[in-house]
Amino acid sequence: MAAGSAAFGAGIALADSTERPSFVNANTGEWLVSVDGGGHSSLYYGSPGDQPLVGDWDCDGVGSPGAYRSSDGYVYLRNAVDTGPGTVRFFLGMPGDIALAGDFNGDGCDTVSIYRRAEGRVYVADSLGADDGFFVADYDYFFGAPGDTPFVGDFDGDGRDTVGLHRESTGFVYFTNDVNPDGFAQTENSFFYG
Q: Which of 4, 45, 140, 168 is most buried (most C-beta within 10 Å)?
């Protein structure tokens, strides 16, 4: 399960279900992955400018790299923590969409969903798109305001990831635990951060 991500300058810090943090330099596509016993390993995945993702795409309990390439609209997912071509690729969404990795139905497998920032709308998929196919949402809902920045986590510990939002204009963070909302998600909690 994708535990979360945070941006640090030109890079993004990621953590997977094994609590193994990674750091990705989005400008170069270099991943620094923590290894058992301390230290880290370096690998390259994706192209400069890709949005890095981490998730357990093949349900083996190990998070592995993924990338959303907004220039062509495709998601590239790898089922190993090493350099190589994507194991699965599929068309995700429209320019400006933000890819979200998480286990949205609690089945132990991560999928890729999208947040359409211009609309404040979440499109959730409970399975991965078919290789060389298209993203198909199982459900969608409005949450937040246009321009909010999304993040994913299991905020109530029920085994299902949901979407949180940071609103830069106010510094507030909002999250919902309503994993299958009907049209509009209810804000579960909010607090000031930054």
A: 45
Q: What is the mean pLDDT of the segment spanning 79-92?
A: 89
181: in domain: no
Q: What is the DSSP string of 59-105?
A: SSS--EEEEEETTTTEEEE-SSSSSS--SEEEE---TTEEEEEE-SS
The whole-number pLDDT of residue 22 equals 77
For the entire predicted model, the pTM comes to 0.84
Task: Identify whether the C-beta of residue 163 lies closer than 8 Å to the C-beta of residue 186.
Answer: no
- Tell me which residue range forms the domain holding 69: 4-149
Calpha distance 162→180 (Å, rounded): 9
Retrieve residue 117's tokens. 């920032």
109 token code pair: 């497998």
Beta-strand pair 139-142/183-184? parallel
Residue 99 inside a domain? The answer is yes
166 falls within a domain? no
**Domains in the chain: how many in total?**
1
In terms of phi and psi (left: phi > 0; alpha: psi -120 to 50; beta: otherwise), the region of 19 is: left
Adjacent-strand bridge partners of 100: 113
Q: Residues in the chain, how many?
A: 194
Structure tokens belonging to residue 51: 């949005």
Domain contains 74: yes
